[in-house]
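ok trying again, last paste got cut off:
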Amino acid sequence: MLKNFWYACELSQSVTRKPKRVTLMNQDFVLYRNQMGEVVVLKDRCPHLGAALSHGQVEEDFIRCPYHGWKFRADGSCIEIPANLDGVPIPKKACVESYRVQEQFGIVWLFWGNLPLEESPPLPSIPTFGHPDFRSFSFSRFFRVHYSRLLEINLDFAHPPFVHGRSFGSRMAHDPTISEYKVHSQDWGGYASYKVKKTKPKGLLWQYFQHQTEPKVTLTFQMPNNFQVEIDFGSWKLIKFSSYTPIDEQTTVSREIYMRNFLTHPLMNSLFEKFEAKLAREDLRVVETVRPKVVPYDFTDEVFLPSDALLITYRKLRKKCRDLGWAINSDSKISSYPTFRTSNFSTPSSISNRF
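nice, full thing came through this time. structure:
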């Protein structure tokens, strides 16, 4: 796992005034909203005897432990210990780790690491989110595989004819060759585009597209776990954003956003979600068999081709993070900075912008 990045820890709609436990990076966090509606994230463990704060209650802007009633601020400091007599000071160690948090794209993002704010990699950009021409919906999905393998298969232009031969990959089955393409590298990511060869597709959804132009597919990633695919049919565009957050070394939760400027009636959301579930099952049949289970940091044991250019870029950045000392064990502790909040983000309107 990699520290010093923003991780999608929950959908905004799932965080309320009631404390909620979320497990990420093999650690437990408690999320709740204060009186201003801002999200607070603390470690879900009282420093007294280890009770889960997520079983406590929120009082004004504070959270109270269910075991002995200790009360904590949003920055993790303790302000009340009911068992203490008047005048007894609160121990300096009576505090809970707090975490920087932002809300964007209907997702709560937690910064897991110890870099100062000004040195931290940015949140991903999703230019079409909130655009009036696009219908969007969000959901979460759980996988019993490592997040790095889920990201890597999505950066592979060559796998659809074989992995997705019963769905959209049938468009490429007659000619699975991949022409050379250019990877546009960025500080913490990259993207590449490829024109899909047009054939008669399988499936009701792809039959709907068959009279459109040959689609251009653009795959984009931002470290360590964010992915976006944009399928451009000319006047129609379908965009999916996924953030693959590790729960532990064997389990991943994906926070996903679908956006489209066609078939925009809300009742069509279920059709796209079912189609995405089918593609996920097709991917998993392969990803679950891949060894090693975690994407390696080095390139010594595998054979690479020009068609792997985008995932090679991902692996190089992954190795860069390791070389910076950002690769840690899943059970390692991360010292945090005080909770940081911001609001009123501006979202670029240009659909051509990338992460």
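cool. The longest strand covers residues 237-246. Residues 225 and 244 are 5 Å apart (CA to CA).
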